[in-house]
# Entry
Amino acid sequence: MKTIVAPADLAINGALPAFDKPLHVGRPNIGNRDAYLKRVNQILDNQWLTNNGPMVQEFERRIADFLGVKHCVAMCNATIALEIAIRALGLEGEVIVPSWTFVATAHALYWQGITPVFADIDPATHNLDPAAVRRMITPRTTGIIGVHLWGRAAPIDELQTIADEHGLKLLFDAAHAFGCSYKGQSIGRFGACEVFSFHATKALNTMEGGAVTTNDDELAEAMRLMRNFGFKGYDNVIHPGTNGKMIEVCAAMGLVNLEGFDDIIAINRRNHAAYTQALAGIPGISVLDYDPHERNSHHYVVIEVGEDCAATRDELVAALHAENVLARKYFWPGAHRMQPYRDLFPHAGLLLQYAQRVADRVIVLPNGSMVGGNVISTIHDIIVARIHEEIAP
Ligand code: T4K
# Structure
C-alpha cells in the first residue's frame, strides 16, 4: 500500500450510500418536450420522414449559421460522416490519427482499407502532439485526422502547417466539439472539413446523428451525393455512394436541443466548476480544465488519477460503480490496444507512451441536467471514502 497521509480537510460531507438509480455518464440532454412533439406531429402530417426533408434542411441551415460555416451536410451518425469525408477527400494508404480517441476515428479508416497510423498525444492537452505526427509521416501518408478531444481544440495551426508542408489532407474529428472554439473561432471551419457527432451522449444530440461542415463547395457537393447513393435527381446516379442520411425525427430533436443549447452549457459549466472545487483538495486527483478564453460546452468532466493518489484509478471506478455512479474510463485502453489494431501493430505502444499513461489515469464523471451540487458532493464523498480506506493503517 502507498504511504500517503490524508490532509485534515479531506473530510466526507454527507452520508453514504449514494444513489438508488444509476447515474450515467452520457445521459442525454432532452430539450423542450412539447416543442419536440409538435415537430414530430408536423413530420407525420407532412408524410416526409427522411431523404433530405424540411427538418434536415432547416437543421443544416441552423447549424451552419451557428458555426459560421458555409456548408453543413447532416448524416445518420459521425462514424459514417467520417467515412464519407475520408472518401470524398480521396484519402488512401496511411492516415495519421491519435490512439487516444474513441475507436470510431480509427475504424472509419480501417473499414475503407486505409491504415490508421497512431501518433502520440501531448499529455497536458490529451490531443495530438505535432512532433509525434511528424515522426509518423511516410511516403504512404495521405492525411491527418486531428481529434478535438473533450471539445478542447487540437493544435490546429501546427497540424495545418505539417499538412501543407507534406501535401497531406487535414480533417478533424470534432465529435466532442460542438459549441467549442479555437482562437475565438467556432470549431467547424478548420481543415478541409470537420465532423461532428450528435449522438444521444453528446452535448447537442439528435438521438443518432452527425454532420460534416466545410467551406469547400465541391467537397460539400461530393459528400451530399455520397450520403444518398450518388443520386443527382431522379434515376441519375453519378457517383458511388452509401446511405448516410439523417432522418426527420432526428433533425427535429437537434433543432429543439439547439434552442436550449445555452441552458445546457450553463448547467455543464456550473457542474464542471463545482467538481473542480470539490475535488481540488484530494492528493493525486486533478480535473482537466477548459481554457477560459475559449468557448466550450463543458460537457466532459475528466479527472486524472496520478501516482500520488492513495487509490488507483480502477479502485476509484469500482467504488463509484458500487454506489451506482457509472463513471467511465474513456477511452481506455487506447485504440491501438483494441482489435484489430492490437494484433496488426503489436508494438505500437512503444511510440505511444503518453497515450498509454493517460489511458491508465482517466475517469469521466457524469454531467448534464441530472447532476447538481448534491450529486457532486456525494461523488466527492465516495472518492474520499475509498481513499481513506486505502490510507487507513
Ligand atoms: N469520434 C469520437 C471522438 C467519438 O467520441 C465518437 C462517439 C465518434 C467519433 C463516433 O460518433 P457516432 O458515430 O456515435 O455519432 C458512446 C457513444 O455511442 C459514442 O457516440 C461516443 N463517441 C462514445 C464516447 O460514447 P459507448 O460505447 O460508450 O456507449 P454506451 O452505450 O456505453 O453509452 C454511453 C453512456 O451513455 C452509458 O453510460 C449510458 C448512457 N446513455 C446512452 C444512451 C445511448 C444513456 O443514458 N441514454 C442513451 O440513450 O459509446
